Amino acid sequence: MHATLPLLEETNFPAIARGRLETVQVNVGYRCNQQCLHCHVNASPTRKEMMSRETADQVLAYLFASGAKILDLTGGAPELNLNFRYLVQRARAAGIHVMDRCNLTVLSEPDQADLAQFLAEQQVEVVASLPCYQEKNVDQQRGTGVFERSIRGLQQLNALGYGRPNSGLTLNLVYNPQGPSLPPPQEALERDYKKRLADDFGVVFNHLYALANMPIKRFGSTLISKGQFNQYMSLLHSAYNPATLSSVMCRTLVSVDWQGYVYDCDFNQMLDIPLGATRRARTHVTDLMEQELNGCPITVKDHCYGCTAGQGSSCGGAIA
Length: 320
Description:
This protein is an alpha/beta fold. The protein has one domain (5-308): Alpha-Beta Barrel (TIM Barrel). The chain is 32% helix and 12% strand. It is built from 11 helices and 9 strands. It has a 9-stranded mixed β-sheet with strand order 6-5-4-3-2-1-7-8-9. Strand 1, helix 2 and strand 2 form a beta-alpha-beta unit. Helix 2 runs parallel beside helix 3 (84-93). The two termini are 34 Å apart.
């Protein structure tokens, strides 16, 4: 696999600093039951990295001490970690809003038969990946049979009340382009998704998040192999939108890896770029207990244009 960080080191991206912390995003491990072409984590069924109970407790201690209101659980498939439900239950008992970044097919794994019911009982917000409403496109990007299993997962969540008015159970979908292009306007795409999924499968959901593919790890390596890396970076640069800069996710979020080390965002985590522009070594979550992050510099590289191109791209979709 091609290394992308050397191609991203040199940048003229503007300096930015942190605001008040709102979200602790935790990658509980890189194991996944899928192996998608666009994955910036390089997740797959063969990955062994998984967060331990000790580290989970350290993360929870920081979450409670930090004053953050949101726990955002990601992976891999976060639900495959044995401590996933422990994290959810502890956070929900403390009144923390929990988000599960779910690939939908995990709901039909043999050992996850009660997963959807658990998420509903805990009132976890589900943020579900579905890069298209057409079977061919989804299976091409995510693997044969993924679309059918994803639709069954959505129907299972709908049956429990997810995505339905006044249920209190939020179901948001995530779109990403098939290749080296920017997402179309989010609002119009959301309307198309809602109509097609409702008409074809009876599926309903709350909102669609349109995310740009990041030029790192598996997707970045694929671009290099195809000779498209420089072209894609030029697209991101030319589409830079300064109106997005005040709302990028790294201003209000910290990213924690499976070992408890902390980064400015999930993408910096995957590139192993430590928290804070002036830091020389990795910072562990246990080192942050007495630290105030508000106002601290954020480490930026050239991939940051992926979050600020066009309508912008964050964990909550378009930002401009």
